[in-house]
Design goal:
Blueprint (H helix, E strand, L loop, with lengths): L2 H4 L2 H14 L9 E8 L25 E9 L2 E9 L4 H9 L1
Antiparallel strand pairs: 1-2, 2-3
Length: about 100
């Protein structure tokens, strides 16, 4: 968001309305969700080898995607899940329901 937009009357009103909604929520009751993923076919472009030796490695033909989602609270990780592929709406809803 551009600095001018941050100071606009509309944005200030929306911030005020949002604060009214969340101000009584206790931080101890919050669980924040984070999601990340990686493709197992990714390889390094550079590697270490003994002096005068060539570094060799293998690359999978087609790496699989792996997704991770975790729920975090002030107490730490409260739940986590790892799946092959992407977290789509059904798998994400199932995670939240548990």
């Amino acid at each position: 968001m551009h600095p001018q937009a941050k100071a606009s009357e509309r944005v200030q009103r929306l911030r005020s309305e949002y604060w009214e909604v969340i101000r009584d929520i206790r931080v101890e009751g919050l669980v924040l969700l984070g999601e990340s993923g990686v493709n197992l076919g990714l390889i390094r472009l550079f590697a270490w080898a003994m002096s005068g030796q060539r570094a060799y490695g293998a690359q999978p033909k087609r790496g699989r995607n792996v997704s991770l989602v975790a729920g975090l609270s002030l107490a730490g990780v409260v739940a986590s899940a790892v799946i092959l592929g992407a977290f789509e709406s059904l798998s994400f809803e199932a995670f939240v329901a548990t």
